[in-house]
Specification:
The chain is mostly helical. Helices cover about 85% and strands about 0% of the residues. The chain has two helices and no strands.
């Protein structure tokens, strides 16, 4: 049976997580600007079609903002996992260095 090796590039994961967190923040900021613009549009447009459009828009915005919240939670969990991985790796290295191995 062949040995399997797992390798992790923590720096790459950290960079990807940071990029994702920045993108999520940008999406949320843009969504808030879009919502403000839609409120102005709502004041200029009345009727059944207007109500249906804005109801759907609100539902879509809510779903997107909830998805952004989920992505932010994912980023926070990734950060925590990265910190734990590095801490465990440090402890393992210390433990290995602590062994006195004598070769005869």
């Amino acid at each position: 049976m062949a040995a399997t090796e797992i390798s992790v590039d923590i720096n790459r994961i950290d960079r990807m997580t940071e990029t994702m967190a920045d993108s999520v923040s940008e999406i949320k900021s843009t969504m808030h600007l879009l919502i403000e613009g839609m409120e102005c549009l709502d004041n200029m447009w009345d009727g059944i079609a207007s109500m249906a459009f804005f109801r759907q828009f609100e539902n879509d915005c809510q779903m997107l903002l909830e998805f952004c919240d989920d992505l932010q939670m994912f980023c926070e969990c990734n950060d925590e996992a990265s910190k734990r991985y590095l801490e465990n790796e440090r402890k393992l290295n210390e433990a290995v260095r602590g062994f006195n191995i004598f070769v005869f």
